[in-house]
Amino acid sequence: MGRTYRKRKRKRCQASSINLNHESTTINLLKWLNGHDFLNSAALELRHFPITGRGITSRKCVKENDVLIRIPMELLITFATVDKSGLLQCIRGQNSFSIHVLLSFFIAIEKHKKESSFWVKYIQSLPDPEPVLPWTDFSDNIQLFPDDIRAKSRKFLDEFNEGCLKLKSSINDQALCQCCKKTLVSVLDKSLFRWAYVLVNTRAVYIDPQLVLSMSDEEGISILSDKPSMALCPLLDMFNHHYMAGTNADVIQDKGQLYYELRTLRNYKKHEQFFICYGSHDNVRLLLEYGFFIPGNVNDCVYFNLKEIVKVLNVSLCERRYKFIKRHQFDDKDVYVRLCEASFNMKAVLFVCVFPNVLNYDAVVFSDCYPSEFRQIMNDCIKTLLEYKLCIMKEDSEKVSSTLLQSKHLSLLKTFLEYRIEFVETMLYQFSEPNIT
Ligand SMILES: C[S@@+](CC[C@H](N)C(=O)[O-])C[C@H]1O[C@@H](n2cnc3c(N)ncnc32)[C@H](O)[C@@H]1O
């Protein structure tokens, strides 16, 4: 791909994006932020992009290490915000809740309060309906999902259902909404809670839990079942994800005031979209937690488990070799292949499988000094394993494509499964090349 091609592509992308700065939700959000010590010094502009949806650019060129946003701490929604709001006093009993559930409870009730909420301009800027995540398909469609995606979807769904039920059953029956005097239990219906829960899932950023605890009331802390490391940060949550995001976020102190700050790590052209990195996530994680995937994602990988490796490679493991793998938990997680590379655990498992007579596996595996002939043998094994996965993935994709059932969730999954086949085919091609590690 030449420079001129990339330049034209970028221009086409800018031309097809739509400026959202004139929309009332954007104007109101920026006005509200301006009124609370936020300076739009980087001339940020919200635009709708064809692939990523709404995202952020600037009307001017931005230099490396420039500040994109600096949001004062009191505009972040953290456990301390929920604690100080008095909402937790509506919860009776000794039940404890995750920070995810508590933030969801808070924004659900604030959404219901409409204009009487301090957060109304922020809440109006949030997407409604919420993004489509495969596990929020509440029909029986989850049965059609491939094994790996179905297992994870069920886990997400169980956590959501459990959190929702526990919260609703713990809210004091007499507790009323401050704005409409309806009971909070009746206000918090499942679809409102789902909206809030998915938004927290897709938009919360990491915050140092110790900092949050230092800003909270000691009495309220006992309601937490995990660390309060999630926060909603207006405007920061308009940035889309890329694994190569050229930005860095941090909490900083300026003249005694704490801010959540985002800076650039490189120069940006006018109207180039800014990204942040949500983490080194593979595409299945992006799909399940955020409702999208990125073709060519460098963090994408194909996972295997010991049972299928042994079956596909037709290996019989003696007790000594099996125990070695188990003792070091090599088969527990991170047994994967990604573009041009096998993970540490994958290499270890394959080595033990195909070299039965090594006396000291520890010495080889932990020094990463494998015999020279292992590389070619490993690549051949990986090719066989990928061919096996490809057959399964084709069947999975066929199952989803041929169903007469319809939902946004299923069509998202269908697109993803088709992409996943292409991804494994590319990997197979790469592992067929000589000199691949
Ligand atoms: C933190 S929000 C980012 C802003 C969001 N686009 C909006 O309109 O408010 C995260 C959501 O944005 C979308 N998103 C983020 N990065 C994306 C990407 N690289 N490609 C497609 N969608 C993306 C997904 O719907 C995700 O759940």
Reconstruct the topology from this structure:
Blueprint: H1 3-16, E1 18-19, H2 24-34, E2 44-49, E3 53-58, E4 67-72, H3 79-85, H4 99-113, H5 120-124, H6 147-170, H7 184-187, H8 190-203, E5 205-206, H9 209-214, E6 230-231, E7 240-241, E8 247-254, E9 257-264, E10 275-276, H10 283-290, E11 301-303, H11 306-312, H12 319-327, E12 336-338, E13 341-342, H13 344-354, H14 361-367, H15 374-402, H16 408-432
Parallel strand pairs: 7-10
Antiparallel strand pairs: 1-2, 2-3, 4-9, 5-6, 8-9, 11-12, 12-13
Domain SET: 42-279
Pfam families: SET
GO molecular function: protein-lysine N-methyltransferase activity
Cα gyration radius (Å):
25 Å
Strand content: 5-15%
Q: List the bound ligands.
A: S-adenosylmethionine
List the helices and strands in order: HEHEEEHHHHHHEHEEEEEHEHHEEHHHH
Pfam families: SET
GO molecular function: protein-lysine N-methyltransferase activity
Domain SET: 42-279
Organism: Sitophilus oryzae
